[in-house]
Amino acid sequence: MTSKRKHLRPDIRQARILELVNQHGEVSVDQLAAKFETSSETIRRDLSTLADAGQLRKLHGGARTLTPLGEGGFEARMRRNTLAKHLIAEKVAKRVKPGQALLLDTGSTTLICASALAKIKNLTIITNATRIAATFAAGSGGAAIYLLGGLYRGDNAQTVGAGTVREIASYQADIAILTAGTLNRTGMMDYSQQEATVAQAMAAASAQVIALADHSKLNKRAPFKACDLAQINTLISDRPPDRPLTKSLQAAGVELDV
User: Fold this and answer.
1) Which residues make Cβ contacts (< 8 Å) with residue 186, sequence separation at least 6?
2) Count of domains observed in the chain
3) Distance between CA 164 and CA 19 in Å, rounded?
């Protein structure tokens, strides 16, 4: 029987390679070739593409995360563009009122936002991220916290999968606060299919969607759609998008807070 892995589009394969590198810290060409049932030459081209895009460090015979070996992808993201993410968090906190119900997905930006939001009184928090749940539990706002079940992924300390998506559908939140892997003229995208599916469900279960994307995520590509631009009520970033993306956002009715 022919494996479906052989028919992966290059952008999808590269996104999954990046996930594996960020999860394990360092991966060899031989491991990746076996994993995706393709040639070493194809994997080397994929690694060159990702390295040229600044996504990983290419080594002789493999690839490594942009941070020292042993530090996971999430911790690396927490150290990137931190000033921008704190600026976004301040803007988010001004939009949330005491007593509202919020859905928050996994991400370094949403985790930083959680620290600012945890001071707001009497929020109801629904999240698939254990770090976010713990941040609200330690905050002064007295939030009621609902941690979604599902398949636990330790790399990002989150739950994902069909069970998580079914559980999200049982809630109705005032706002979904979603962190973008990338955001471009086609919508908000993610490098993980599982995380994109969770974001889709959260958007559908909320009266309002706030997308978070610092400048480094704008006009980048990722293979999995989290939501269309028309599903987003507000985009919060640290810098204005370029003119073509701004026009697309405005045409879709997205408010810009930049």
Assistant:
1) 225, 228, 229
2) 2
3) 20
Q: Which pLDDT tens digit goes with each residue over 52-67? A: 877 888 988 999 876 5
C-alpha distances (whole Å) from 5 to each of 2, 10, 12, 32, 35 are: 9, 11, 10, 12, 9
Dihedrals phi, psi of 191, to nearest 5 degrees: -85, -15
Residues of the chain with pLDDT > 90: what percent? 71
Same-domain check for residues 64 and 85? no
CB-based contact 77:228 (threshold 8 Å): no
Which residue has better confidence, 170 or 50? 170
247 and 164 housed in the same domain: yes
Residue 111 near residue 122 (C-beta atoms within 8 A) = no
Residue reference for tokens 């530090």 = 71
State residue 155's pLDDT score. 76
Domain that holds residue 98: 77-257
What pTM does this model have? 0.72
More confident residue, 195 or 79: 195
Domain boundary among 53, 71, 89: 71
- Tokens 């998008």, residue located: 241
Cβ atoms of 249 and 235 within 8 Å: the answer is yes
Q: How confident is the model at residue 42 (pLDDT cuts 50, 70, 90)?
A: very high
Number of H helices, E strands in the chain: 10, 15
CA distance to 18, 41, 62, 247, per residue, from 66 (Å): 11, 22, 13, 33
The pLDDT of residue 245 is above 90: yes
